[in-house]
Amino acid sequence: MVNMDLLQGLDEDEATRVLELGKRMTVESGGVLFRLGDRADSLYLVARGRIRLTLPIEVRGRSENVLVEEEGSGHTVGWSALTPPYRFTLTASAPFETEVVAIEREALAAYFAAHPQTGQAVSLNLAGVIGRRLQVIQAMWVREVQRMVELRCA
Amino acid sequence: MEMLLMGACLSMFGLAITCLAFGAATRREEDQSGHKAAPAVERETLKPAVMPRFFVEPPVVLPLAARSRVPIEALLLQIESHVRLEQAAAESFLECPNASLLHSRTISPLVN
Question: Whole-model pTM?
């Protein structure tokens, strides 16, 4: 559990206390953890399995949920719960049985207020997670733009 | 006087011949233009197709996946595979950021 990206740098006791704020949930194979546009009150740490993050794309006139990102165990999904307007911007589902720890925003905020050092460490980890995703998506976007330019200039 | 009349008659005769010749020549041109009216129209209709078209976008070359009517499930799998490959390429770029890694070629069938 200490290998979770959000808990990096915390000692085992601290990490356990943070995890105890959450609730373990099992998402059945094919089940949906949250949907695009839902209220985001909890963030999720993937303890076991895999979570697919998808967005709807029109394919031949049909709206299809297309994979945008995939996260395995140790990774965090649903950080929309920590940033206004607290709405999920993707749909998360499990391709097979997956276990997550759901931590509510309010519980996390209250714990961080009482334990500012832990709060700072987790917040920095979260900034790292968000920053990394932003960089990956940015690079993917630039690659698509490059292809579009090559196609138009061909 | 006789000479003058003779000259006038010859002039009139010459003028008449000139008019006839002019008339005949003109009629032949009209006839020719009448016969070739249809090909002229054809040429006119063909012209725009072969004329160079400036300020017109080049034809869009669709990727293979878009061109062929592959089943939607197969297309979705291709998209998924494309996203995974692109994510891996983006992560390689972040490990060692440089322009050649950023624009490395993909083997994704969606864009090849």
Answer: 0.67
Quick one: closest CA in B to A138, which residue? B90
Nearest residue, CB atoms, B76 vs list A59, A147, A152: A59
Taking a C-beta distance cutoff of 8 angstroms, is the pair A91, A16 a contact?
no
Q: CB-CB: which of A69, A138, A146 is closest to B103?
A: A146
Pick from A67, A143, A154: CB nearest B80 = A67
CA distance A21 to A43: 11
ipTM, 2 dp: 0.76
CB count within 10 Å of CB B93 equals 23
Give domain status of residue B28, yes or no.
no
Mean pLDDT score, B47-56: 48
Note down the domain range covering B73: 64-102
A122-139 pLDDT, tens digit per residue, is 999 999 989 998 999 999
Q: How many domains does chain B have?
A: 1
* A95-113 pLDDT per residue, tens: 999 999 999 999 999 999 9
Scanning every residue of chain A, which has its alpha carbon at the shortest distance from the alpha carbon of B66?
A60
Of A63, A44, A35, A52, the residue nearest A93 (C-alpha): A52
**Best mutation target, A55, A151, A153, to test chain B (most B CBs within 10 A):** A151
Asked if A11 is an interface residue toward chain B (Cβ–Cβ < 8 A), one would say: no
Tokens standing for residue B17: 């011949």
- The domains located in chain A, with CATH, are 5-153 (2.60.120.10)
**Is residue B73, in this structure, part of any structural domain at all?**
yes
Judge whether B87 lies within some domain. yes
